[in-house]
Write the structure tokens for this entry.
Amino acid sequence: MTDTAPAAPHRDGAASDSPVRDAFVLGGNRIPFARSGGAYAGVSAQDLLTAALDGLVARFGLQDERLGVVAGGAVLKRAADLNLTRESALGTPLSPRTPAIDLSKACATGLETVVHASNAIRLGQIDSAIACGVDSASDAPIEVSDRLRRILHRVSAAKTPAQRLRALAAIRPADLAPQPPRNAEARTGLSMGEHQALTAARWGITRQAQEELALASHRSLAAAYDSGLLDDLVSGYRGLARDENLRPDSTPEKLASLKPVFGVRSPEVAEPTMTAATSTPLSDGASAVLLGSREWAQERGLAPLARLVDARSAAVDFVHGEEGLLMAPAYAVPELLDANGLTLADLDLVEIHEAFAATVLATLAAWESEEFGRERLGRDGAFGTVDRSRLNIAGSSLAAGHPFAATGGRIVATLAKLLHARAVETGRTQRGLVSICAAGGQGTVALLESDGKA
Amino acid sequence: MSTPRSTSAARGTASRGGASRGAADPYGRLVRTAPGRAVTTRLGLPQPPRLPRRADREAPVLDPVVVLGATAGADQVAETLLGWDADVRRRAEDLDAIGSVVVVLDELSAPGDLSEPSLALASTLRRLRPGGRIVTISRPATGGDQDGATEAARGAVEGLVRSLGHEVRRGATANGILAADGVPLDAPGVVGALRFLLSARSAFIDGQLLTVASVDGALPEDWERPLADRTALVTGAARGIGAAIARTLAADGARVVLLDVPAAGTDLARLANELRAVPLQLDVTAPDAGERLVAFCREQGLVLDIVVHNAGITRDKLLANMTGDRWDPVMAVNLSSQIAIDDALLAAGQDVGGDGGGDGGADSDGGGVLGSAPRFVSLASTSGIAGNRGQTNYAASKAGVITFMPALARRLEGVGGTANAVAPGFIETEMTARIPALRREVARRVNSLQQGGRPEDVAEAVAFLASPPAGGVRGETLRVCGQNLVGR
């Protein structure tokens, strides 16, 4: 019981002459992702996150443990959930003296919580952490209109009943319409899918290529479940054993029969290519990742799966049309690999979040483009090619679904386990990349590495 | 923040332990109200009594306890009871109320010998307290090793006990212990079974006879925590009877490893958090389930002293409508998987610290994962004994479990282990809650106690068979059914 320990958090190995030490991914847990309005309809984001945390606590015997931090977040968040992560953590058997923080960076939230927590471990500020994320499109907050909100504030500020009545009298029927969150960029008014349709057209991403990627995602994820790979990464919840969106028996013919949904009315898109099958659905779900220093892991007999080597983020000017909304990782990854003296060829596994199939393909195309390499990245030529047999080998968001802030944790935990298993098998250090695009023209990428040693 | 808006925000899961408590039986609640009792008595409807459980009566013996019989064995039994601070009497005449009666019949040699003790027992029945206990201790018929009159007298005890189970009222039960020839009545198996059958832990066991075949086993240092320092694996542990077994084993002091399919993961995790147990998400029917379980145990440094095969499913259909996707999974989960897992555990061998020979040799890639006197307990079913319409597949699998037990027990004999089964009758669970209302109401009343049992009743029987004293109980199937009318 660390509950009764004195106030100062204990540290290990934070040597003063070397301020940076290693932070490791020790394991993960998530609940199966559900389609919006599906298995988790009516379940709050807090309940979903608590479920994912409960599973992680149980798997690693963290009952009563005081961790360095629980860092979490959600993209769709009610105002009342300002302490969502703290409230969720309090619902678990973790020591109530474990601090928590809520972070937010659209779809990159989950990966940012991993980066935030591992940085604190690397600096010796903390020894252990849980990075987590949750989103529920089914439980998304619905707000009142700006006009109604102002009127209601005026009512509450009114001093006399007459003033109150006068203020209330200003309400018009149209003000009463609820305002669900909009899936559109604030500065362009275009939805993410419409933005991606422009990027797909610009890079000439074919519909067939997108559908092949989607099929591979479904097949790989189904195979990951069948092989038992996810047995200690996913804990069933509310009758859901696997991701609700997963369709292992989908066929090319079935996908080819769907109508395009994005870029349909855009004059800049000659031939719309993006369908529901090549776009991630709105989803509900939560994930959590356990992080720790080597010493903290050893004390508990936990095997470090992978070291969090480094991370970068980038942003692009999508507002003025200079770059596609979801292309920031195309810039962040070269920066990350350059900083670590690596090329794409040095990566054993690559995880590129499938916001849309076209996002992944446009990113790969950009890296293979001489022009993009020279003019955008300032290199001598193309950045490089990703070996497709190393890409998203256990499936990704097109199959699993994409509860925004939960995706980072899903990818990091799965990748860490894959890297560790391959390092043990081959006896060679394995490197993996995580790349996640986000609304607002942003992206966060991270590098993981495993030597397979306990 | 203000008040928690979700159930998970409230810490602690203690309430889950009592989730099954009397929730499902509205008629049972009705007859416990004054007007309800007045009406139902007049109509001649069943009057299911309230059955005290462990928490309702913690003392092992409901006092006073009358020991009938004048043999040396009877003296041993009286000594044992005195050792538990029970109010032991050898005569019942001057008592107004009697809590328990132990009838020692270990030296019967002719049917006539049964007359005097039976009539002495008869005189106690009208004074038996609610929730009272009657336990006979006798020798089992041997199939011809003894002379005919002796065999006949021994067999007669069974008829007495089973009929008396039907006759006693107000939550009292009648059960018997059959101590094999050569097993003294202070052997651990006899003492353990006696304590269990006299206690409130056996509330839903009625009309049953349990054989103690050998002097193996040991008395626990602490009867309140008989499983201290033991590690127990429970399959199908996330919900229902499996969760109740896990809670009971943990309450008895065991460290518990909870196994269930990944689909039940979050329920499993929450139970693990409640019990500080080790969760393992694994499908027992996976081809490599045994190997993965062994690897997990080695990785976590777990040595299993107790293995409870509880994982089970139903896919009911009349045989005429049976399909492979209903037959095969039932046999795989309920029967084949446990044979495969037991093989894998035994192949991995016993922990180096163990004292066993026989199967005890560990294989090449790591240490053994079984303790020195491993206890295997499997879940059978009264359906496996009597059959049940629409359950050919389920009954076949459970009947298979029952006959698998003696075979496994023989294999374990060399290493001091045992294997036994528990056969639940109608238990109030999510599964039985789905039976159509009228059929459910009938199923729940057709036993001597006129009610369904609780998951913890099954768990108590499992915990007893897993406990150190039960080492002399080998290959048995103990029914926990309130003496259901079907089958033996």
Observations:
- The radius of gyration of chain B is 23 Å.
